[in-house]
Amino acid sequence: MSLSDLLTHVAPDSPEAALARQVDFARLPKHVAVIMDGNGRWAAERHLPRVEGHRAGIESVRDTVESSARIGIGVLTLYAFSVENWKRPETEVMALMGLLRQYLRSELKTLLKNNIRFTVIGQPDRLSREVREELQAAEARTAGNTGMQFNIALNYGGRAEIVDAAKRAIRSGLPADALDQETFASFLYTAGQPDPDLMIRTSGEMRVSNFLLWQIAYAEIWVTETRWPDFRCRHLLEAIISFQKRDRRYGAVSSHPATVSR
Predict the structure, then answer these.
(1) pTM
(2) Which of 125, 176, 232, 233 ranks highest by number of CB atoms within 10 Å?
(3) How many domains is the chain partitioned into structurally?
(4) Residue 175: inside a domain
């Protein structure tokens, strides 16, 4: 993708256009992970039921997926439903699953048109048969796409993923001496994908919430006060611009002595 590609989808004098011109398209993050937070607070601020916040968040998913593909992000992972989310009221969980099915049905053509490959990461076995069938159909229909990889984390937990990876490693019969970090990563849900180099969290919370714990070891974290239903392309561009301004050291000493962390 390029600046000209992105500018064809935003208004010429819009904030998005101004931000797009600041992006270095040669240094994009390879993998962007997003914790979509704030649906409930967005609804509460408007004196609406929580489900209306989730419903409004669907438009943010649509905009973020399409914008990421147009910008040229290689992998996008959205945290949609954690293993802890089962503790929410049953009516809210059912509404979330219904909205997920609605999104898949309405957006499948767009995923195909934009050459986006869709994959579920997590433990989907606990999901209803109807939801699993929708997910499997979307994965199958987009399996041949070669553009952006779009992961949706469902019934997902970072600790559970690491335990699952350890079990897979044991079942593989791999000798313990042959198990290093690179080999272990091949047993994770995201095997074969680059680790996230940028993690975005909406609604101002300063925690990682059991999300991609192994993979985000060196990710840059960008937090916005914006509630998820209000998150749009301009916020994604702001996150990318911030990412590109950072001195990424991966634990090494900075080449700029004045910026060394203490």
Answers:
(1) 0.93
(2) 233
(3) 1
(4) yes
